[in-house]
Write a structure and sequence with these properties.
Elements: E1 5-13, E2 19-27, E3 39-43, H1 46-51, E4 57-65, E5 74-80, H2 82-85, E6 90-94, E7 100-103, E8 111-112, E9 120-123, E10 136-137, H3 144-150, E11 157-162, E12 176-184, E13 190-191, E14 197-198, E15 201-204, E16 215-220, E17 225-226, E18 237-238, E19 244-261, E20 275-287, H4 291-295, H5 298-334, H6 341-356
Parallel strand pairs: 4-10
Antiparallel strand pairs: 1-2, 3-4, 3-6, 4-5, 5-9, 6-7, 8-9, 11-12, 11-16, 12-15, 13-14, 15-20, 16-19, 17-18, 19-20
Length: 357
């Protein structure tokens, strides 16, 4: 399977009426431009963000409907890797005037994953008048239930939206997309360069420095073939048009490297023990469902507790306004306004003047 297409299976008939199946490819669909507006860039300091220095990583905006029953109420968070925000906590996003805006978070503002997974979030103060953004709603977070129901697995198409640090945009953020496939589902933990073990999806997509913290999406393309687990020899089922997804698969946390010996022009090792890193083309992605663990942490619960307090305050103000309107209506019933009060006043004034005369 190629990085930009999905297998589809077509039944072909012969003149005698017999048929056989052939594999064909369905091209990767056009991705909507708004997906770029969910991406943020992270820098060590405000000055680094102002200059657009080639340092830091990526992040994205995630919206949590709260309370879940409220369609229009959403708490927005910036999401990235813990290893990124440790050194680059300052966020830069696009502004509506075609430039960028900076939010100078400190690393202590970010809430890490309670179990040490390579994730961190921070409540994000969006300004709808100033910021140009899109928000990934939390209902797009991939879950174990969705994986089982849709049979998501190896070979499925993914794309990552992040910061190509060699051409990222100086005047504004210009995120880039990379495409690939699920190469391995989460299982045994992977040892990261940070020294910690991490449960990851392995993605056949070449990540480089700058993409860490970027969102990774998975979707089922139109007419994509789904294997029948009960009978591997059976022809695959086909997902009908228009396809399903995308879902937030997870967060890019690393590119996996291998080490090669340093060699001379003839291919002979130059010195014993000298090595250089080589990108294997495999990306490690922290599963998106682990973001919800941070919401359930102590600091996460504090945020939603403040949301409850704010909702209660709004409800009190709304109730007070309603009570005031009802009170005014009751007073009007007891003392109905005189629609002719101005005319009555003028008449009384005229009579008073005449009496004086």
């Amino acid at each position: 399977m190629g990085a930009h297409s999905e297998w589809i299976w077509r039944k072909v008939y012969s003149r005698s009426g017999n048929h056989h199946w052939i594999a064909d490819r369905y091209p990767m669909p056009r991705i909507h431009d708004y997906i770029q507006d969910c991406v943020t860039y992270l820098y060590p300091t405000e000055s680094h963000a102002e200059e657009g220095d080639k340092i830091g990583g990526s992040g994205f905006l995630l919206g949590v409907r709260y309370p879940p029953s409220h369609v229009n109420d959403m708490v927005t968070f910036a999401v990235s890797n813990a290893h990124v925000v440790k050194h680059a906590p300052v966020v830069r996003l696009n502004a509506k005037d075609g430039t960028f805006a900076i939010v100078p978070f400190k690393k202590t503002d970010w809430i890490p994953h309670p179990d040490g997974d390579d994730l961190a979030i921070v409540p994000f103060p969006l300004d709808i008048e100033m910021h140009k953004f899109s928000v990934i709603p939390d209902e797009l977070i991939l879950t174990h239930e969705i994986i089982t129901k849709q049979d998501i697995g190896i070979g499925d198409e993914v794309y990552v939206v992040g910061r190509f640090i060699n051409h990222e945009g100086k005047q504004k953020n210009s995120p880039s997309l990379r495409f690939g496939n699920i190469a391995q589902m989460p299982g045994e933990k992977l040892m990261l360069d940070t020294g910690m073990e991490q449960e990851v999806f392995l993605i056949e997509a070449k990540s480089i420095g700058g993409y860490s913290g970027a969102p990774v999406f998975v979707h089922l393309l139109p007419f994509s073939a789904r294997p029948q687990k009960d009978d591997p020899k059976a022809q695959p089922l086909v997902v009908p048009f228009p396809g399903i997804g995308p879902w937030l698969l997870g967060v890019d946390c690393c590119h996996i490297q291998t080490w090669d010996s340093v060699r001379d022009k003839d291919g002979k090792p130059i010195a014993q023990g000298w090595q250089v890193p080589t990108n294997t083309g495999m990306m490690g992605v922290v599963p998106a469902w682990k973001i919800k663990d941070i919401f359930d942490s102590e600091r996460g619960k504090e945020i939603f507790k403040k949301c409850d307090e704010e909702l209660a305050r709004r409800n009190r103000l709304t109730q007070a306004a309603t009570d005031s309107v009802v009170s005014q209506k009751e007073k009007q019933k007891e003392n109905p306004p005189n629609p002719n009060h101005k005319e009555d006043f003028n008449r009384l004034l005229d009579n008073a003047v005449k009496e004086k005369k």
